[in-house]
Amino acid sequence: MNQNDKIELKLNAKTETGKRSVVVSGARPSGDIHLGNYAGAVANWVALQDTYQCFFFIADYHALTTNYQDTSLLRQRTLNMVADYLACGIDPDKTTLFLQSSIPEHAELSLLLSMLTPVSWLERNPTYKDLLNQLTNLEIRTLGFLGYPCLMAADILIYLAEFVPVGEDQLPHLELTREIARRFNYLYGTVFPEPDALLTKSRVLPGTDGRKMSKSYDNIISFSDTPEIVRRKVMSMVTDPARIHKTDPGHPEICTVFAMHKEFNPHEVDEIESLCRAGQIGCIDCKKRCASRIAEIHTPIHEKRENLLANKSYLLDILDRGASVARPRAQEMLAIVREAMKIGFGSGALPG
């Protein structure tokens, strides 16, 4: 049975019982949401909330795994991310949106899962190896960084998630969560479902310099940028380096601006590709059309974001509302886990 068949069976079963399948996902508050985040994840979250019971969280515990030495911006970045999500279309009346650290049961379940997770499983994690090589300027050889897959597993399993929205490149991470759930169930009896991947189309947007859009490359277009800054960034994008004159045939497949057209201007993309290959549209005109289309999406989100950030109490209220829904579920699940592992005595009373 393939992945799509498994998902279909689960969805059919949920439909018969009248319950929606649970989806869980989170993101670290490491900076403002940009167009790459929007295309790769956030737009998908917005679509999922109409079909699934969604638990989306701001992963501030996870932010500490690589940025524990300087937390001065953590709270403001958390509020920025809440505003970004709401402005992009996450609806708190449809989705449980909360702050990870407001549910301490995540941390306790992570600790309990770490007791049964072999170190060799953690060390083979491809992200662990990659970040050790990339972030050489940070001291991240810590227990928290090595063991973050246990925290990730806790985030997912504590809500009995059936699906986790991921791209294909993230499947190894989810498989580790499945392995941890499988090992727990083998040792203590079946408690956790093994969550399936809700595969999303991998949409990696290039940044203004042609590399992957990333905060670390300083090549992003974020929703905190003003419309004028966005226009300037689009007009500065790298295009086809082999095209010298406006009438030279273009190669849109290697052009950053054309990649943006494919993502945000699907109705005109075929026409633009044809004109570019025939040398009938110049790069400046192509960029202007791209900037106009991006503005249609970006400007309303930017303006709503700014209005939300002006009302800090509302943003905190949204997080409190989400926590009031998420925490009772987490507490109930943790009690089941503690009972399965024979930790404590349930009510907290000493044995007679």
Could you characterize what this model shows?
The protein is mainly alpha-helical and 352 residues long. The protein folds into 2 domains: 3-205 and 312-341, 3-Layer(aba) Sandwich (Rossmann fold); 225-308, Tyrosyl-Transfer RNA Synthetase, CATH 1.10.240. It has helices at residues 3-17, 35-48, 60-67, 74-88, 105-114, 119-123, 126-134, 143-146, 148-157, 171-188, 227-235, 256-264, 269-277, 283-309, 312-341, and strands at residues 22-27, 53-58, 95-99, 163-166, 196-199. Helix 5 packs parallel to helix 15. The N and C termini lie far apart (51 Å). The mean pLDDT is 90.
User: What is the total domain count?
Assistant: 2
Number of helices: 15
- CATH-level-4 superfamily name of the largest domain: HUPs
Largest sheet: 3 strands, parallel
Give the beta-strand count.
5
List the helices and strands and how they pair.
Blueprint: H1 3-17, E1 22-27, H2 35-48, E2 53-58, H3 60-67, H4 74-88, E3 95-99, H5 105-114, H6 119-123, H7 126-134, H8 143-146, H9 148-157, E4 163-166, H10 171-188, E5 196-199, H11 227-235, H12 256-264, H13 269-277, H14 283-309, H15 312-341
Parallel strand pairs: 1-2, 2-3, 4-5
Helix pairs in contact: 4-14, 5-9, 5-15, 9-10, 11-14, 12-14
